[in-house]
């Protein structure tokens, strides 16, 4: 059997309903994975991600992340079906949601705020996952400052050092890491369930205009990290932020902390892609240090 026939068999086994492949077509999978849509003769269709077999655990973590975001029922998330290895490829199969419908920014802002209201006592998650293709460490912690220092900034700057980042960048981030408590003197974030990678390419609307989020890097932590990333690459409009704040207002210190949170993603982009992200990361770290020094 071909890869596509084997994947069709996995759909039948996992769903308990016959799935006979009618057609398959390539789909946008980003820069990390290959992707396709499988259409069945019975009228159902599924979205499939493919990668090297050694990355199967990445797909297992993504499947659990989709479940974690979907369980509260606040915002639409593709339902994962199954994952595994076949024909020398790792795969993740999930519900196919046709995207590109009308965008309702206020609905998205309200739904994201409601999702963030689902909290638990500790920061982190029960397993590690990935941010892009970079490992993301989610070891549980009762201390958000410790978590952000060790498992977000610290992890990324060590990878940057090993990949040849300039000493001035490394020193700026390390000095900032020592200054983290200054950003949280009057703010104790709750541990909200987070998408974790909420740039503009990871949310859209279905055909009916319902907001949809996908491609997560889930953990529990400060909700400001999700909101901050919506501003990093593309951003959302004012209606989105107004609706979010009407549902759960952001703390006044968000305007500074958003840079602290987006530094993590800029460092990760340097580690993934190199180039100008090093200079952008260093400038942001030094701007944050200037805030601390007054």
UniProtKB/TrEMBL annotation:
A Gene Ontology molecular function term of the record: kinase activity
InterPro entries referenced in this protein's UniProt entry, alphabetically: Fructo-/Ketosamine-3-kinase (IPR016477), Kinase-like_dom_sf (IPR011009)
Range of residues in the leader sequence: none
Phylogenetic lineage: Bacteria, Pseudomonadati, Pseudomonadota, Gammaproteobacteria, Chromatiales
Keywords, ordered alphabetically: Kinase, Transferase
UniProt-recorded name of the protein: Fructosamine-3-kinase
Domain of life: Bacteria
Membership in a protein family: Belongs to the fructosamine kinase family.
């Amino acid at each position: 059997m071909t890869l596509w026939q084997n994947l069709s068999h996995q759909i039948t086994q996992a769903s308990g309903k016959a799935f006979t492949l009618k057609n398959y077509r390539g789909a946008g999978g980003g820069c990390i994975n290959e992707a396709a849509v499988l259409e069945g003769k019975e009228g159902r269709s599924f979205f499939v991600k493919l990668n090297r077999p050694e990355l199967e655990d990445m797909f297992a973590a993504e499947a659990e992340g989709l479940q974690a975001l979907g369980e509260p029922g606040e915002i639409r998330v593709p339902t994962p079906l199954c994952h595994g290895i076949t024909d020398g490829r790792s795969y993740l199969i999930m519900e196919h949601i046709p995207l590109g419908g009308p965008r309702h920014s206020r609905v998205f802002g309200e739904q994201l705020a409601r999702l963030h209201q689902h909290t638990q006592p500790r920061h982190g998650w029960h397993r590690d996952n990935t941010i892009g293709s970079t490992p993301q460490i989610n070891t549980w912690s009762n201390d958000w400052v410790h978590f952000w220092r060790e498992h977000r900034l610290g992890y990324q700057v060590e990878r940057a050092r090993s990949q040849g980042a300039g000493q001035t960048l490394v020193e700026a981030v390390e000095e900032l890491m020592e200054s983290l408590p200054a950003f949280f003197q009057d703010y104790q974030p709750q541990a909200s369930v987070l998408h974790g990678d909420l740039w503009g390419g990871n949310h859209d609307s279905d055909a009916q205009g319902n907001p949809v989020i996908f491609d997560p890097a889930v953990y529990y932590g400060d909700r400001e990290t999700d909101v901050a990333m919506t501003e990093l690459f593309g951003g959302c409009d004012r209606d989105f932020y107004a609706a979010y704040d009407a549902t759960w207002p952001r703390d006044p210190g968000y305007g500074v902390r958003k840079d602290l949170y987006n530094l993590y993603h800029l460092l990760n982009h340097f580690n993934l892609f190199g180039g100008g992200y090093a200079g952008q990361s260093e400038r942001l770290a030094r701007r944050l240090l200037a805030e601390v020094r007054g």
